[in-house]
Amino acid sequence: MLKISKCPKLESMSDALLETGSVPHEGAAPAPYDVLVIGAGPTGLACAIDAQNAGFRVVLVEKGCLCNSLYNYPAHMTFFTTPELLEIGNIPFPSPNQKPNRQEALQYYRQVAAYYSLDVRLYHRVEQVTGSDGSFAVHTKDRFGRLATLRAAKLVVATGYYDLPNYLRVPGEDLSKVMHYYDDPHPYSGLDILVIGGKNSAAIAALELWRHGARVTLVHRGPEIHRHVKYWIKPDIENRIKNGEVTAFFDSQVAEITLDTVRIQTPEGPVILRNDFVFALVGYHPDFTFIESLGVHSTGPDRLPVCDPESLESNVPGIYLAGVIVAGKRTNEIFIENGRFHGKQIATDLTARKTTRQFSAS
Prior knowledge:
Blueprint: H1 13-20, E1 33-38, H2 42-53, E2 58-61, H3 68-71, H4 102-115, E3 120-121, E4 124-132, E5 135-142, E6 147-157, E7 178-179, E8 192-196, H5 200-211, E9 215-219, H6 234-242, E10 247-249, E11 253-257, E12 261-266, E13 269-274, E14 277-280, H7 288-293, E15 298-299, E16 304-305, E17 319-321, H8 336-339, H9 342-355
Parallel strand pairs: 1-2, 1-6, 2-3, 6-17, 7-14, 8-9, 8-14, 9-10
Antiparallel strand pairs: 4-5, 5-6, 11-12, 12-13, 15-16
Helix pairs in contact: 2-9, 5-6
């Protein structure tokens, strides 16, 4: 069985500080890690690998399991991209499929983490970050409520966006029948299901649910299925709608959800539908509250975090951003395919600071 183990000690703390020029602030304890990565998804793993390969001592903190967001994707999900575009750490992604599935990806990233002996602290949620460049303290809580503190000279925030759904903010959304994540179609066979949304997640869920015996209605505020839906999915869902196999209401919105019905507002007026379950798949967003609690500023309606496009260091010295959070609300701009290269950008900047003895802000 593959095991994610701690990275072997690279050097004594005094030697590490001398080599990097990282001097703790007056009164602060030395940071035993050069880099702490918050988030152990594909981008976080890539950042840790690149920093470790550059000679830095790295630790990762993850509130759930390894690649927690990927784990919570639909059980039968297939990626929209090819294996080589999901690779990190210069490790080939072996797959017999042109488009790998979720299970293959989870196995691949487990193996990569084990190969590099990454020090990953799973099921540790970051509660607070204190300190400053050269001497950050990351305060965590594990699943049993136990507190711990990790210290590092630099931080990389790679927290993704899949954990926080966009809410409809309509009456009844808090009912147990309403879900913001889709997993498996089997439990909904023979039932009346409403899918809200018009992009990939909603289209895939509607198709799978229909193919497993659910009576599916799709509601989308736009005039048609979104143009960015993948080219092999879009005609499929459009044909199901055209044939009356999936009922669709466009230019429509959900107004109220009750125990047994859903009321939607359509161009022709209100419609009440018999309903057993609702999948509100209208997108997700980064944890802006956490990012801003670190002192990172954001700009514009898309809440773009302020960071240097070359180094990815934010406006807070010593705190780097990686992955989809760099794009703020524009979560369709950064995926594993391009976010996996952020680690190299960050490692390059860290190495330059190390060379010029500016690894610390002091």
